[in-house]
Predict the 3D structure of the following.
Amino acid sequence: MTDLGKGTSSLNDHSVKRRAPGSARHSIENGELPSRPDQNPYPGPTFTLGATMNTKRISAGLCAVGVTALLAASATPALADLTPDSTFGGGDGYVTNDSTTTDNGVAVVANDSRILVVEDHGDDTVNVLAYTLTGAVDTTFGGGDGVVDVSLATVADIELMPNGKLLLAGDRIAKTPGRVVRLNANGTPDTNFSGDGFVTLPYEMRGLDVDSRGRVVAGGMLILKQDIGLLKSDFGVARLRGNGKLDTSFSGDGKAKVGVDVTDRMTDVGVDSADRPVVVGSAAGSVYALTTTGVVARFKANGAVDGNFSGNGFATVNLSKGQNTGVAVGFGAKNRVVVAMANQEKFGGVRFLSNGKPDSNYSGDGKVAGNHGGSVYAASVAKGAIVVTGAGGTGFDQMLVGGVTAKGKLDATFGTGGRSSYDVTPKEDFGFAVFRDSAGSVLVSGTAADGADNDLFLTRLVQP
């Protein structure tokens, strides 16, 4: 194991998550990750989700938690055409890692040669694990054991660059400021990036992407004021040059923001082919609001809020009543913006034209939704298609996977209603991170729990 250790000046106490150009996969923000989906997964403020639900604490990474009455009525759909890949892992389609009593896979990304998973232990420590495409340990990463200990508190986003280097975005133990980290392909800090491999930013980090010129765009929740019962925040983004310095051609100082309501919670950021950053998340009138609105906002390449998008630079959208959140963002042809969304009972997608208007060629009105029958914790957008994961089944004890096609239809390959629940391991399986690779396979990582011990799992779903 390569230990970047607490107390060092390299990857000390910052954190991580993941995205790729034109695609995104976003897992729940880490704090104390739930051993069951109805437990509190977030270190954020408490939201009461209604009379049928327990009080839960939710921050921007949360997609949805299921309403008790809905879940009681939901039947587990038939298994989909996608099945665990028997050539992956030990022949059963998955690999696990059990290094402590709590091991949660909270972010995943892959290229044509390796798979990287971010593992959170629930005790303010985070590892990056590297696997080959067959699920074997990648001995070229870390100290030969495929593990880099970055000693972080939370995970925000993770990106594999074309040159094999790894970008991570997340928060320090004190939550803000956040950091962007760049590692070499072998897992060591890239000292060509700000001298020590990381850059500090004034956000609770939620996402990052790389534009056409190799500049890193990263962002999160910009806290303006916080007190008991009060959270005033905006969506904040920054652009970094290849050497890690703030790009002053972006908004003058390298940082930009947009405000929609009192409490704005960013969940993801992507960059379109015109190098315009697009952020998604939710907006509410207060930190304790029972109703939130999904938000997508766009900046110009120079960092100004883009008034050509929906007239004022942002658009709002809801799947149904409740706490709606834009979970992940990607792009279709002609820079159409595709947003994976979820709330307490539904998952789905919305697509906007480049001018910010709903795309009527996407499910007729620019929006599609289906019941998830469980809890959604993460989403991915790749080539206009959406994949979500979480927990499902009649007992919340199976990995939930669902999808929306690039044409705006619930994806039947994931089963009836565009979703299915899987028993991946002999334990209870909860999906916390999802990524669709270049071959179209779906990678899901999460935790396999039996009440006493949580093991990280990684599975690959393929067409049989």
Remarks:
- The chain is about 0% helix and 45% strand.
- Helices lie at 68-73.
- The chain has one domain: 2-462.
